[in-house]
Amino acid sequence: MKPVAFDYVRPTNVSEACALLAGDDGARIIAGGQTLIPLLAMRLARPTRLVDIARIADLAFVRDEGEDVRIGAVTRQSVAERDPIVATKLPLLAKALPWVGHKATRHRGTVGGSIANADPAGEIPLVAVTLQATITVQDAAGSTELAAGAFYLGPMITALPEGAIVTHIRFPVWQEGRTGAGFHEVSARRSDFAFVASAAQVALDADGRCAALGVGIGGASDTPVRLDAVSEALVGSRLEETEVREAVVAATANLETVDDLHASATYRKRVAATLARRAILDARDEALGGRHAR
Amino acid sequence: MRLDIGGTQRIEAPIERLWASLNDPAFLTRCIPGCRSMQEIAPDRYAVHLDLKVASVGGSFEGHIGLSEKSPPEQCRISVTGSGTLGHGSGEARFKLEPAEGGTLLIYEGSGEIGGLVAGVGQRVLRGVAKHLVGKFIKAVRSELEGSAATTSAKA
Amino acid sequence: MRVELQVNGRRAEVDVEPRCTLLDCLRDTLGLEGTHAGCEHGVCGACTILVDGEPARSCLMLAVQADGHELTTIEGLSLGPGELSVLQDAFCETHGLQCGYCTPGMILAAHALLARTPQPTRADIVEAISGNLCRCTGYGQIVEAIALAAERLRSANIKTGET
Amino acid sequence: MGEVASFKYVSRKRRVREDRRFVSGQATYVGDVTPPGTRHAAVLTSPYASARIVKIDASEALAMPGVDAVVEGRELAAATDPLLIGVDAPLVKRYPLAVGRARYAGEWVAAVVAETRALAEDAREKIRVAYEELPFVLDAEAAYQPSSVPVHPEHGSNVLLDRPFVWGEVDATFAAAPHKLAYRVKWGRSATVPIETFGVVASWDPWREMLDVWASIQMPKFADQIARALRMPMNQVRVHQDVDVGGSYGVKRGIKHTVLAGFLSRKLGAPVKLIEDRLENMRGGDMHGPERTFDVELAFDGTGLVHAMRMRAIDNVGAYAGRSPLQLGKPVGAIVGPYRIEAVAYHAIAVTSNKTPQEAVRGFGQAPTNYAIETGLDRVAETLALDRLEVRRRNFIRADEFPYLIPSGTTYDSGDYHAVVAKTVKHVDWDALVAERDKLRAGGHLAGVGVASCLEPSGANSSFEPLLNPKNTTTTWMESCRIMVDALGAVTLTIHTTSAGQGHETLAATAAGEALDIDPDRMRVVRATSLESLPSNSPVGSRMAIMLGGAAYRAGQKLRDKLVAIAAHQWGMPAAQLHYRNGGAEDPATGRALEWPDLILIAHRHYHLMPPDMEPGLAVSHVLQVPTGGGLPSPDGRIQMYPCFSFEFHVVLVSIDPEIGRPHIHRYVVGHDCGTVINPDIVRGMTLGGIAHGLGAALLEEFAFDGEGQLLTQSFMDYLLPSAHEVPEVEIVHHVTPSPHTVFGQKGSGESGYLGAPAAISSAINDAVRPLGIRFEALPIRISAIGDAIARAKGLP
C-alpha cells in the first residue's frame, strides 16, 4: 500500500499555498493527513503534488472574538481539545472532540482538515452544522465565507471551490442564558465511524425556558444535518421529555439515511431520533447545572 | 456492491431537444461527470474515457456506453461498463421522458454494480457518492439546456 | 528529498521520496525495525511512535512532514543496551504481550499516558490503548502491566519523563 | 494423575523469556529480514469473482525503470506442482497464480518484482489484463446442487466433501424420544486476522543450490510442501524457524506465497521479498475462516437429557482448498461436546464457491460446532422451561465416567465438569447474577445471562485426515526437542518450529528444567532451521504444552539417566540405587555424590571414566508421538481424535439498551480446566486472548461479500477487530483435572477461549431478547440487527 509518487512543497503562507493550487488540478492540500494518507496508501487519491499547509503559523490559532470563537484550519484537534477558550465558549465542540478518531489521530489531525474532509460521520463537521458556523475559504482570487449548513453536499463532497483552502472556522458563541451541550454517538467500536451521532446545544433563560436550541445528526445521512424543525418547535418550551421526543421524531420522519453493511437505514433513522432526544436532554440538564447525564 | 438510482427531474426544455441531447455524444461528454471522451465505435455504442474525481479520490476509467430499446422521444435504455485503477462497474438504467408544462419530466430508474478496490474499502460512502454523481449529471443537463444557472428543484 | 529528523534524541539526515511514510523511513532508511506495519491505513496502531511526546501513527505521516519534531520509537525507551525501562519491564512481569507485534506501539501509547497521568485509572489505561489493536492478549495483562508500571514509578518516585 | 505430582518449576510463576526481545523492539519478524540484493514483489489480483484470463500484457510494466520481472499463472504452473489439497480432489488444482481463469475476486493473477515495493506497485498498475467474465456461484447450498456452475469444471462439481457418519442407534433413539427439536444456526465467515500480515523472503543460492526461506508461518510440514511444489529435494529448502511471527492462531500457512517467492528468486537469482499489505491479505491472502451452516435435530426426554443428535454441517470453503475442508473433521473428536449424548448422525459437506479460500482457524472447526451444540442445549431448556444451567448439569459426563468413550470413537481422557461449573457458579454467585439481570430488566434495559460450556480437544493428531480422505493414511503426529550440555555445563535446548507468541521457549525450558531439576532460566533455547530439525508438526491444535512439553521432559529424562549412569559407573554400582538431584547423583547409602560439574567433566573430557558403551558428550533428543495417536479410522468412521480434552464453562451477564441495541457486557466469568498449568501467565493470556477473539466473531467480525462476489470488508475500517474498549474484564476460575496421557498432566489451552465465547455471548443476547420473542441464529450479531429486531418486536418503525 505505497502511494503513487508525488511532489511535496511547503508554502510559508496562505496566498503562496493558493497560488500553488491554482491551475494545477493534480495538487492537493495536506495538513494533518489522517484521512488523506490512507487514501494515498490505497491509491484512491493520486495527486501529482502535495501542498503542506500544516506549518503556516497564521492558520494555527484559537481566538475568542466575543461573538464567536475563530479556529485556524491547521489547529491540531488535540490542541483544540485542551484549549480553555473552546472548553468555556464552545461546550458542544469540547464535548464532541474526544469522539474524533483516536488520541493518536487527534494529535496530528487538524480542525480544518476534518471540516474539509467532510466525512458523513465527522464529529467536527456535525458541530459546525449544528452551531451554524461559518467556514472561511481562500483561493488565488481572495477569501469568501460559506455557511456550514450549505457547505456539505455529499459524502466527502463540499462546496469548497476548486483550488481553494479552508483558512479558519468561526463557531458562534451563545451569549444569552445558561448554555449546556449534549453529544451522543453509536458505532460498532467506541472509536469507529459513527452509525449515528447527535450534537445538541441548549440555552435556557432565567426561568428555565429554552431560549435557543441547535441539534444536528451525523453519520446517518450523506452529510451532517441540522434539525431546524426541532429548534423551531422547542424554543420557548421547558424541554420536557415528551415534547422533545415528539419534536425529534417529527423532524427525523423523512430524514434520508444510509443503508450499509454495518447499520440499516431504518436503524439509523430510528436511532437518530433517540440520540437527538438524549443529546437535547443532556444539554438541558447541563444548562440547568445538574450534572445528570441520560 | 449494488447501487440503485432513480428519480424524476423537471427539465425546462422541450422533449425533442432533451431527447436529442441525451443521444448526442458531445452533449453527454459535457454532462457526464469526469467524462473526457466518448467515441462512437458502433451504432449506439461508445467507448468512453472518464477521469472521475470526488473529493480527494480520483481515478481514470475506460469503458463503454450502449444505448438500446430506443423509442424516441420517450424512452431508452442505457448500459454502462467500465474499469480502472479504482475498480470496475457496470450498470443499466432506463430513461423516460414525458412532456410536462414548461418542460419535460426526465424519469430515470436503474441499478449498477461496483466492484474492486473502491467497493472493498468504500462501501460506507459509495452509495452517497453515486447519488451525488447522478445529481451532478442532472445539474449539468439542466444548465446546458436551460442556459441560465438552474436551481436544482429536488435534492438529487 | 533531504529531511533532517530528530529520532530518540539523535539527529538523522535522510533522503527519501515525498511518498515515503515516516513508518517506512524509520524501518527501511534508519533501520529502526521495532516500529511495525499492521494495516498501513491508520487503524491498528502497530506503527505508533511518539511525536513530541504524544502518540501518533507513523503510517499516517510522511517522512517529509516529520522534520522539527522530537520522534521517539521503542528503541528510544530502553535505558541502555540490554536495560529495560520500568514500563518495558512491567510488560514482562505481567506478560502483557504474546506475539509482540503490537507491543512497541502499545508501550509507547502507555508511556505517553504515564507521562501525562502518573496515576491512571483502569478507564484511563483502556482509553489510552484503545487505538492499539492486539489480537493475542485480550488486553487484560496489558492493562495490568501499565498499572504495575504506574505503581512502581510512583513508589520509586522516578519522574516519568526519565523512565 | 501425570507422572510428577508436585513440581519444582511447572505451575510456578515464571517470566516468559521471549518477552524481553518484544518489549525492547529487538524481535526479528520477516519484515525485518532483507538480505543484500533483495527485490520486492507485489501481486496483481482479479477484479472478478469468475473470469477467463484472455490476455495479460505486461510490456508497459516491464519497460519501467527498476522492474525485474512480471510472472503469470501459466509460466509458474509449468515450473511447479499444484499445492496439496486435504481431501481427495486432485482435479481441484491450485497454483499460487491463477491459470487460465480467475476463480475469486482477489485471486492472484500476476506477480511483479522490482527494486522497491513502491515501484512494484507502480508497475502492477501498468499490467493490462483482458478478462471475460464467467458465471459464478457464491452460496454454499447453491454450490451443493449438482446443477451449480462448478468452480473447477475438471472436478465436475462444487462438492469437495460429502460424508455422512452414523454412530449409534440414531433413528431408533429419535423415534423413541418424547421430545425433539430442530434448528438452524449460521457461523459467519470470520477468521483470526493477525496484526502482522503474511510475509516471506526466499533467497536462492545457485552455488550452494540452497533456497533459504524466512516466513511468518505456523505451518506443519511447511518445508515439505515448499520443496514438493518447487520440485526440489527437501534438503535444498532451508526454512529459518527463528523468525518471530506476529500472531497467527492458525491462518499463517502461506504455501502459495512461499512457492511464488521461491520460484521468483530462482528465476531472478536474487532474494525476493513478498510482504502482503493489508488489502492483499484480506482479499487474496487465502486466510478466511469457516463459513458454516448447521441444521441440527436433538432427541431428548422430559428431564432435558439429550439422547441423540443429527447434525448437518455445510461449509463454504471458497475457490480452492488446502486443509480447510478438514475443519469439518476435527470436530468429530468432540461431536457431543461435554455431554452424554449416546447416538450421533453427522453429515459433513464442504463445497467450493467463487469466494476467497479458507485456512485453518483457531480450533480448526470446533468453535462453530460448539456454537451449534450449545445453542441446542439452550433450546432444550427453553422447550422444557428448565434452567439452562441445570439442563447442562444433567447432560454433563460425570467425573467418575472418565475415560469416556463418545459415539464417534474418541475417548475423553479426564475431566470434572460438575466441579468446574460448581466453582464458577459459586464465584459468580449465580443467584445474585440472575437477580442483577432482573434488576436491569426492571430498570428498562433488556438483560440476559449467557452460559456455554466447551471442550477444547488438545494435543492435535492427524486422524481426521484419514477419516475424511482414505487415501491419506498419516498416523504420525510428533514433536521433538533436543538438549545439549556443553563442556562448561551450560544447557542449550533446540526446538524445531516457529512460534507466534505462545511462549514455546519458556515452555520447553520449564519442562526440561523440571526433568533435570535445574533452573529453567539458566537454559538457552534456540531454533533449528528445517535442515537441522528433528520431526515437528508446529504449534496447531493446542498441542505444544502437551507435545513440546512432553518431548522436552522425555529428553531431560534421557539426559538425567545418562548422568546417573556415568556416576554409577564411577562407583561400580547399579544406576537404580543412586538418587538424582540438581544435576548431580548421590549414593544414599554412603552419602557420596558427584555434582553437575563433575559429571560434565567426565562426559566431555574423561572418556576413560565413561561407561564402556556410552557416547562422549551430553546431547540427547526425543521425538514424541502424540499420545493415543497412531490408529486408522474403523470402516464406520470411528477414530480416536485428539488425546486430551480441556473444559471451560463461560457465564456472561449482558444488558442491551433497547433503543440503541448495543450489548454491554457487565460480567464475564470463565471456569477453566486445562489440566496441569505449566506457565500460569501464558495460560491466562491464551484464555483472555481467546475470549476477546471469540467476542469479535460473535459481535463484530465478518468477511462480507456482495452479490457479485466482491469482498466489502477489505480494510480494518469494515473488518472490525475488538479494541480494548470492547473486551470486558474476564474473571477466570481455575481448576485442574490432570490428563493421564501427559508428563505433568497438562492439556492444551490455546483455543478454548475462542471455542466458548461466541456460544456464551450469543446465549446471553438471546436470553436478553427472549422476552420479546426474538431469536438470533447467526453470527456475528450486529448492533443494528439487535436494534431493528427490538423495534420490530415492539411494532416501532
Structural summary, described in words:
The complex is a heterotetramer of chains A (294), B (156), C (163) and D (797). Chain A is an alpha+beta fold and 294 residues long. Chain A is built from 11 helices and 14 strands. Chain A folds into 3 domains: 7-52, Uridine Diphospho-n-acetylenolpyruvylglucosamine Reductase, domain 2 (2-Layer Sandwich), CATH 3.30.43.10; 57-172, 2-Layer Sandwich (Uridine Diphospho-n-acetylenolpyruvylglucosamine Reductase, domain 3); 178-288, Enolase-like, domain 1. In chain A, strands 4-5-10-6-7 form a 5-stranded antiparallel β-sheet. Chain A has a 4-stranded antiparallel β-sheet with strand order 11-12-13-14. The longest helix of chain A is centred in the C-terminal third of the chain and has 24 residues, at 265-288. The N and C termini of chain A lie far apart (43 Å). Chain B has one domain: Alpha-D-Glucose-1,6-Bisphosphate, Chain A, domain 4 (2-Layer Sandwich), CATH 3.30.530.20. Chain B has helices at residues 15-22, 25-31, 117-146, and strands at residues 2-11, 35-42, 45-54, 57-71, 75-84, 87-100, 103-115. Chain B is of the alpha+beta class and 156 residues long. Chain B has a 7-stranded antiparallel β-sheet. In chain C, a hairpin with a 2-residue loop joins strand 1 and strand 2 (10-15). In chain C, strands 2-1-5-3-4 form a 5-stranded mixed β-sheet, sandwiched between helices. Chain C is an alpha+beta fold and 163 residues long. Chain D has 3 domains: 38-134 and 198-275, Alpha-Beta Complex (Aldehyde Oxidoreductase, domain 3), CATH 3.90.1170.50; 292-463 and 632-793, Aldehyde Oxidoreductase, domain 4 (2-Layer Sandwich); 478-625, Aldehyde Oxidoreductase, domain 4, CATH 3.30.365.10. In chain D, a hairpin with a 5-residue loop joins strand 19 and strand 20 (491-495). Chains in contact: A-B, A-C, A-D, B-D, C-D. At the C-D interface, helix 2, helix 3 and helix 5 of C face helix 1 and helix 18 of D.
